[in-house]
Design goal:
Blueprint (H helix, E strand, L loop, with lengths): L1 H30 L1 H5 L2 H20 L1 H8 L8 H34 L1 H14 L10 H26 L5 H21 L1 H6 L4 H10 L1 H16 L3 H24 L25
Helix pairs in contact: 1-11, 1-12, 3-5, 3-12, 4-5, 5-7, 5-8, 6-12, 7-8, 8-11, 11-12
Protein backbone atom coordinates (compact mmCIF):
# COMPACT_ATOMS: atom_id res chain seq x y z
CA UNK A 1 0.00 0.00 0.00
CA UNK A 2 2.78 2.40 0.94
CA UNK A 3 4.57 1.68 -2.35
CA UNK A 4 1.42 2.59 -4.29
CA UNK A 5 1.08 5.83 -2.35
CA UNK A 6 4.74 6.60 -3.05
CA UNK A 7 4.26 5.88 -6.75
CA UNK A 8 1.19 8.13 -6.88
CA UNK A 9 3.11 10.94 -5.16
CA UNK A 10 5.95 10.51 -7.63
CA UNK A 11 3.55 10.69 -10.60
CA UNK A 12 1.87 13.81 -9.21
CA UNK A 13 5.25 15.40 -8.55
CA UNK A 14 6.43 14.64 -12.09
CA UNK A 15 3.19 15.96 -13.55
CA UNK A 16 3.68 19.17 -11.56
CA UNK A 17 7.25 19.40 -12.87
CA UNK A 18 5.88 19.32 -16.41
CA UNK A 19 3.48 22.16 -15.61
CA UNK A 20 6.33 24.17 -14.06
CA UNK A 21 8.40 23.59 -17.19
CA UNK A 22 5.75 25.43 -19.21
CA UNK A 23 5.76 28.19 -16.59
CA UNK A 24 9.53 28.45 -17.04
CA UNK A 25 8.83 28.89 -20.75
CA UNK A 26 6.48 31.76 -19.91
CA UNK A 27 9.25 33.19 -17.75
CA UNK A 28 11.29 33.55 -20.93
CA UNK A 29 8.94 36.38 -21.92
CA UNK A 30 10.62 38.45 -19.21
CA UNK A 31 14.21 37.58 -20.10
CA UNK A 32 13.90 37.01 -23.87
CA UNK A 33 11.06 39.34 -24.79
CA UNK A 34 12.17 40.23 -28.31
CA UNK A 35 13.05 36.63 -29.12
CA UNK A 36 9.69 35.20 -28.07
CA UNK A 37 7.83 38.09 -29.70
CA UNK A 38 8.95 36.70 -33.06
CA UNK A 39 6.69 33.73 -32.44
CA UNK A 40 3.58 35.91 -32.21
CA UNK A 41 3.45 36.55 -35.97
CA UNK A 42 2.81 32.97 -37.20
CA UNK A 43 0.62 32.29 -34.15
CA UNK A 44 -1.70 35.18 -35.04
CA UNK A 45 -1.94 34.04 -38.67
CA UNK A 46 -2.78 30.44 -37.69
CA UNK A 47 -5.27 31.63 -35.05
CA UNK A 48 -7.14 33.77 -37.58
CA UNK A 49 -7.33 30.87 -40.04
CA UNK A 50 -8.78 28.57 -37.38
CA UNK A 51 -11.18 31.24 -36.16
CA UNK A 52 -12.56 31.53 -39.68
CA UNK A 53 -13.34 27.80 -39.57
CA UNK A 54 -14.62 27.53 -35.99
CA UNK A 55 -17.05 30.46 -36.04
CA UNK A 56 -19.25 28.98 -38.81
CA UNK A 57 -19.23 25.63 -36.98
CA UNK A 58 -20.44 27.20 -33.75
CA UNK A 59 -23.04 29.26 -35.61
CA UNK A 60 -24.46 26.12 -37.24
CA UNK A 61 -24.47 23.91 -34.14
CA UNK A 62 -28.23 24.13 -33.76
CA UNK A 63 -29.04 22.88 -37.23
CA UNK A 64 -26.21 20.33 -37.06
CA UNK A 65 -27.48 18.73 -33.84
CA UNK A 66 -31.05 18.76 -35.21
CA UNK A 67 -29.83 16.89 -38.29
CA UNK A 68 -27.93 14.34 -36.16
CA UNK A 69 -30.91 13.58 -33.88
CA UNK A 70 -34.09 13.31 -35.99
CA UNK A 71 -35.29 10.55 -33.68
CA UNK A 72 -35.66 13.12 -30.88
CA UNK A 73 -38.15 15.29 -32.76
CA UNK A 74 -41.07 13.66 -30.97
CA UNK A 75 -39.53 13.88 -27.50
CA UNK A 76 -40.66 16.33 -24.86
CA UNK A 77 -38.96 19.74 -25.26
CA UNK A 78 -36.89 19.34 -22.08
CA UNK A 79 -35.32 15.98 -23.01
CA UNK A 80 -34.86 17.00 -26.66
CA UNK A 81 -33.04 20.18 -25.70
CA UNK A 82 -30.86 18.37 -23.13
CA UNK A 83 -29.81 15.77 -25.70
CA UNK A 84 -29.00 18.27 -28.41
CA UNK A 85 -27.13 20.65 -26.10
CA UNK A 86 -25.05 17.71 -24.87
CA UNK A 87 -24.25 16.61 -28.41
CA UNK A 88 -23.38 20.18 -29.34
CA UNK A 89 -20.97 20.34 -26.40
CA UNK A 90 -19.31 17.10 -27.50
CA UNK A 91 -18.92 18.44 -31.06
CA UNK A 92 -17.25 21.57 -29.70
CA UNK A 93 -14.88 19.49 -27.54
CA UNK A 94 -13.93 17.35 -30.53
CA UNK A 95 -13.48 20.45 -32.69
CA UNK A 96 -11.21 22.01 -30.09
CA UNK A 97 -9.15 18.81 -29.94
CA UNK A 98 -8.62 18.97 -33.68
CA UNK A 99 -8.14 22.74 -33.79
CA UNK A 100 -5.29 22.61 -31.27
CA UNK A 101 -3.47 20.04 -33.41
CA UNK A 102 -4.09 22.04 -36.58
CA UNK A 103 -3.05 25.30 -34.88
CA UNK A 104 0.20 23.78 -33.64
CA UNK A 105 1.05 22.17 -36.98
CA UNK A 106 0.16 25.27 -38.99
CA UNK A 107 1.96 27.65 -36.65
CA UNK A 108 5.17 25.60 -36.50
CA UNK A 109 5.19 25.13 -40.28
CA UNK A 110 4.65 28.73 -41.35
CA UNK A 111 6.73 30.06 -38.45
CA UNK A 112 9.61 27.58 -38.66
CA UNK A 113 12.34 30.25 -39.06
CA UNK A 114 10.99 32.15 -36.03
CA UNK A 115 10.75 29.10 -33.79
CA UNK A 116 14.18 27.91 -34.89
CA UNK A 117 15.56 31.15 -33.45
CA UNK A 118 13.55 30.74 -30.23
CA UNK A 119 14.73 27.24 -29.33
CA UNK A 120 18.28 28.04 -30.39
CA UNK A 121 18.21 31.17 -28.22
CA UNK A 122 17.01 29.15 -25.24
CA UNK A 123 19.77 26.60 -25.78
CA UNK A 124 22.43 29.28 -25.98
CA UNK A 125 21.14 31.01 -22.85
CA UNK A 126 21.69 27.71 -21.01
CA UNK A 127 25.23 27.30 -22.26
CA UNK A 128 24.64 24.96 -25.20
CA UNK A 129 25.42 25.57 -28.84
CA UNK A 130 22.72 23.87 -30.96
CA UNK A 131 24.20 21.99 -33.89
CA UNK A 132 21.12 20.92 -35.85
CA UNK A 133 18.13 22.45 -37.59
CA UNK A 134 14.74 21.18 -38.67
CA UNK A 135 14.22 21.54 -42.39
CA UNK A 136 10.96 22.85 -43.85
CA UNK A 137 9.91 19.52 -45.33
CA UNK A 138 10.64 17.72 -42.09
CA UNK A 139 8.54 20.28 -40.22
CA UNK A 140 5.75 19.94 -42.77
CA UNK A 141 5.82 16.15 -42.45
CA UNK A 142 5.62 16.34 -38.68
CA UNK A 143 2.76 18.82 -39.01
CA UNK A 144 0.80 16.49 -41.29
CA UNK A 145 1.38 13.64 -38.85
CA UNK A 146 0.13 15.80 -35.98
CA UNK A 147 -3.03 16.76 -37.89
CA UNK A 148 -3.79 13.12 -38.77
CA UNK A 149 -3.37 12.05 -35.15
CA UNK A 150 -5.42 15.08 -34.09
CA UNK A 151 -8.26 13.89 -36.34
CA UNK A 152 -8.14 10.46 -34.70
CA UNK A 153 -8.22 12.04 -31.23
CA UNK A 154 -11.16 14.23 -32.27
CA UNK A 155 -13.07 11.20 -33.57
CA UNK A 156 -12.36 9.23 -30.40
CA UNK A 157 -13.43 12.21 -28.31
CA UNK A 158 -16.64 12.46 -30.32
CA UNK A 159 -17.44 8.77 -29.84
CA UNK A 160 -16.72 8.84 -26.11
CA UNK A 161 -18.91 11.89 -25.78
CA UNK A 162 -21.99 9.85 -26.72
CA UNK A 163 -21.66 7.67 -23.61
CA UNK A 164 -24.72 8.47 -21.47
CA UNK A 165 -24.26 10.65 -18.37
CA UNK A 166 -20.45 10.59 -18.17
CA UNK A 167 -19.60 11.04 -21.86
CA UNK A 168 -18.88 14.77 -21.68
CA UNK A 169 -16.50 14.43 -18.73
CA UNK A 170 -14.70 11.40 -20.18
CA UNK A 171 -14.40 13.09 -23.59
CA UNK A 172 -12.84 16.19 -22.02
CA UNK A 173 -10.32 14.15 -20.01
CA UNK A 174 -9.44 12.00 -23.02
CA UNK A 175 -8.98 15.09 -25.16
CA UNK A 176 -6.66 16.74 -22.64
CA UNK A 177 -4.47 13.67 -22.09
CA UNK A 178 -4.13 12.51 -25.70
CA UNK A 179 -3.83 15.99 -27.22
CA UNK A 180 -1.39 17.01 -24.48
CA UNK A 181 0.80 14.04 -25.30
CA UNK A 182 0.73 14.88 -29.02
CA UNK A 183 1.60 18.52 -28.35
CA UNK A 184 4.54 17.66 -26.11
CA UNK A 185 5.98 15.23 -28.65
CA UNK A 186 5.63 17.70 -31.50
CA UNK A 187 7.03 20.69 -29.62
CA UNK A 188 10.11 18.83 -28.32
CA UNK A 189 11.00 17.76 -31.86
CA UNK A 190 13.40 20.63 -32.54
CA UNK A 191 15.51 20.15 -29.44
CA UNK A 192 15.63 16.39 -30.07
CA UNK A 193 16.59 16.94 -33.72
CA UNK A 194 19.48 19.15 -32.61
CA UNK A 195 20.80 16.17 -30.67
CA UNK A 196 20.36 13.78 -33.57
CA UNK A 197 18.06 11.49 -31.58
CA UNK A 198 16.35 8.68 -33.43
CA UNK A 199 12.58 8.23 -33.31
CA UNK A 200 13.04 5.22 -31.03
CA UNK A 201 15.22 7.20 -28.61
CA UNK A 202 12.66 10.00 -28.49
CA UNK A 203 9.85 7.56 -27.75
CA UNK A 204 11.90 5.97 -24.97
CA UNK A 205 12.63 9.33 -23.36
CA UNK A 206 9.04 10.52 -23.64
CA UNK A 207 7.86 7.22 -22.20
CA UNK A 208 10.31 7.32 -19.30
CA UNK A 209 9.14 10.82 -18.40
CA UNK A 210 5.48 10.17 -19.20
CA UNK A 211 4.01 12.06 -16.25
CA UNK A 212 6.24 15.09 -16.79
CA UNK A 213 5.47 15.10 -20.51
CA UNK A 214 1.74 14.90 -19.79
CA UNK A 215 1.98 17.73 -17.28
CA UNK A 216 3.64 19.95 -19.85
CA UNK A 217 1.32 18.91 -22.66
CA UNK A 218 -1.92 19.21 -20.68
CA UNK A 219 -0.93 22.64 -19.34
CA UNK A 220 -0.12 23.76 -22.89
CA UNK A 221 -3.40 22.36 -24.17
CA UNK A 222 -5.35 24.27 -21.51
CA UNK A 223 -3.55 27.49 -22.41
CA UNK A 224 -4.38 26.95 -26.09
CA UNK A 225 -8.07 26.53 -25.25
CA UNK A 226 -8.28 29.95 -23.57
CA UNK A 227 -9.41 32.71 -25.96
CA UNK A 228 -6.26 34.39 -27.39
CA UNK A 229 -4.22 32.18 -25.06
CA UNK A 230 -2.74 30.18 -27.92
CA UNK A 231 -1.12 33.28 -29.40
CA UNK A 232 0.78 34.19 -26.24
CA UNK A 233 1.38 30.59 -25.16
CA UNK A 234 2.87 29.29 -28.40
CA UNK A 235 6.28 31.02 -28.13
CA UNK A 236 6.42 30.12 -24.43
CA UNK A 237 5.53 26.51 -25.26
CA UNK A 238 8.38 26.32 -27.79
CA UNK A 239 10.80 27.69 -25.16
CA UNK A 240 9.39 25.38 -22.49
CA UNK A 241 9.55 22.34 -24.76
CA UNK A 242 13.25 23.01 -25.25
CA UNK A 243 13.68 22.93 -21.47
CA UNK A 244 11.59 19.75 -21.30
CA UNK A 245 13.68 18.02 -23.94
CA UNK A 246 16.86 18.97 -22.08
CA UNK A 247 15.41 17.56 -18.85
CA UNK A 248 14.45 14.29 -20.54
CA UNK A 249 17.89 13.92 -22.14
CA UNK A 250 19.55 14.63 -18.79
CA UNK A 251 17.37 12.07 -16.99
CA UNK A 252 18.24 9.45 -19.58
CA UNK A 253 21.92 9.73 -18.70
CA UNK A 254 22.94 10.75 -22.19
CA UNK A 255 25.88 13.14 -22.48
CA UNK A 256 25.30 16.82 -23.05
CA UNK A 257 25.39 17.63 -26.78
CA UNK A 258 28.83 18.51 -28.01
CA UNK A 259 30.27 19.13 -31.45
CA UNK A 260 30.54 15.76 -33.16
CA UNK A 261 33.88 14.63 -34.42
CA UNK A 262 34.17 12.27 -37.41
CA UNK A 263 37.06 10.56 -35.62
CA UNK A 264 34.74 9.16 -32.96
CA UNK A 265 31.38 7.38 -33.37
CA UNK A 266 28.33 9.05 -31.84
CA UNK A 267 26.70 7.57 -28.74
CA UNK A 268 24.15 4.81 -29.30
CA UNK A 269 20.86 6.08 -30.66
CA UNK A 270 22.35 9.42 -31.72
CA UNK A 271 23.13 10.17 -35.35
CA UNK A 272 25.90 12.61 -36.29
CA UNK A 273 24.81 16.05 -37.49
CA UNK A 274 24.97 16.60 -41.26
CA UNK A 275 28.25 18.00 -42.57
CA UNK A 276 28.31 21.73 -43.07
CA UNK A 277 28.64 23.01 -46.59
Amino acid sequence: MSSRVGTLKSVISEFGSGVRTLLRGFGMWRTHTRLLALGLIPAVIAWLVLLAALVPLVMSLGSLTDWMTPFADGWSPGWRTTLRVGIGAVIVIAALALSVAVFTALTLTIGDPFYQRIWQGVERSLGEEPSGETGFWSTLGEGVRLVVLGILVALLTLLIGFIPLVGGVLATITNLLLSGRLLARELTGRAFDARGLTSLSRSQMLGAGRARVLGFGVATQLCFMVPFGAIIAMPAAVAGSTLLARDLVGRSGRPSPAPWSPDAPPPAGIAPPPPHA
